[in-house]
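Structural prep section.
Before we set up the soaks we want a predicted structure of the protein with pyridoxal-5'-phosphate in place, mainly to decide which crystallisation condition to try first. Input record follows.
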Amino acid sequence: MSRVFNFSPGPATLPLEVLEQVRTDLPDWHACGMSVMEISHRSKAFLAVAEQAEADLRELLGISEDYAVLFLQGGATLQFAMVPMNLSVAGQTVDYLSTGSWSKKALKEAGILREVNIVADAAASGYTDVPERSTWQYSPDAAYLHYTPNETIGGVEIHEVPDAGDVPVVADMSSTILSRPIDISRFGLIYAGAQKNIGPAGLTLVIVRRDLMERVEDSVPSILRYSTFAASGSMINTPPTFGWYIAGLVFEWLKRQGGVAKMGEVNQRKADRLYHAIDESDFYANPVAPAYRSWMNIPFTLARPELDADFLEQAVQAGLQNLKGHRSVGGMRASIYNAMPEEGVSALIDFMGEFARQHS
Ligand SMILES: *Cc1c(COP(=O)(O)O)cnc(C)c1O
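Run finished without errors. Recording the tokens verbatim:
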């Protein structure tokens, strides 16, 4: 078997231990003679998996009983619609921070249903910086404030939770959840597609303060209400059982690593080392304002863009894959989620140094 270091932004690399566990479990899971994806979601065996996954996630992130944890489908993109549908009513204004591609998509979707106020817009910086907090324009009566703590494409991360007073804060944590400790009580709702830091595509996590689920209007179909899923243990219909099971294995793996506090230390170190290598070279550059540099997705450009294709080809030879930057940004992007080991970052830094020596 040969595994590469996979820097894909998503679906992204998973811990090898988890994949090996899946392989072992697959044909005859828990000695029941079937795989986990072939059994009823309402069976005792699956319910035990589902409950353990939720308990482990609650433990990892310190989620109190004031919050419901939901295991949904539809990706983060469905949440762009479910958030305004559930947390606001017709005629209300909703506040959005616009800091890059994903927040723009979220606010565009919300704009179909509600009046959107853009609290701050990072467009002037080309989405490489975030306007000073003193300039942010909250609306006086917003139903919630939505932001994207980590812009996966631009590599812009807001490291401190915005303070919107009594207005609930909603966060799209698709590419940053479980990468460090967070204070759940600062949030009204957190959502995340699984395929970056949790497990396979097809599962979406929502952590929502229970009282906020009561805001939903009668006109919202039940399948699109958080309250429906909360009342049914996320089993109003068949949930994504295989993804839920793998997410559970990833949560167990995270606990064995020492939890999110330990992940935060490791992630910060990985990112610091890569930024340091970029900054100290004349050959590579990262455009993001230092205070907003992402720990998870690190875009960088080459001083000679005509060498991009060579860089990517030689990287593959060196066992480093999926470093091509997003088409809207160009250059390279290294996604270094929880499951990317420190050795992967070391290998990338060594390769970048060697490539720069050969071409400068
Ligand atoms: C990947 C990503 C999305 C889109 O997720 P889907 O699950 O494909 O809908 C949304 N927001 C952020 C921050 C992302 O990284």
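Observations: The mean pLDDT is 97.
Flagged for discussion at group meeting.
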